[in-house]
Design goal:
The chain is 61% helix and 0% strand. With 82 residues, it is mainly alpha-helical. The protein has one domain. The longest helix is centred in the N-terminal third of the chain and has 24 residues. The protein starts with 14 loop residues before the first helix and ends in a 6-residue tail after the last helix.
C-alpha cells in the first residue's frame, strides 16, 4: 500500500535519530532504576519486593513514552527494504 504523504519520510533535520536516541535513553533510565531497586538489598529482605514493584510502577510512563518515540522515529524515516 502506497503512503499518501511522502513528506513524512523526509529526514533533513535528523529528528528521527534524536527520537530514537531519546527513546533508548528513556529505556535505559527505566531499567537502571529497576536494577538499582532490585540489586542493593538481598532478596530475603522483607521490603525488597515492594521496592522493586514501586520501581516498576512509579516511572512506568517512561517505557510508554519511549515506545511512542520509537514509533514516531520509524514512521518519520523508515528503513529501506532491499
Amino acid at each position: 500500500m502506497a503512503d499518501p504523504d511522502p513528506s513524512l519520510h523526509r529526514d533533513e533535520s535528523g529528528s528521527s535519530r534524536i527520537f530514537a536516541y531519546a527513546a533508548l535513553t528513556l529505556y535505559g533510565a527505566f531499567l537502571s532504576g529497576v536494577a538499582s531497586a532490585a540489586y542493593p538489598q538481598p532478596p530475603g529482605h522483607p521490603h525488597w519486593l515492594l521496592g522493586v514493584i514501586r520501581a516498576l510502577m512509579n516511572p512506568g510512563v517512561l517505557p510508554l513514552v519511549a515506545t511512542c518515540l520509537l514509533l514516531i522515529s520509524g514512521r518519520r524515516y523508515p528503513p529501506i527494504a532491499t
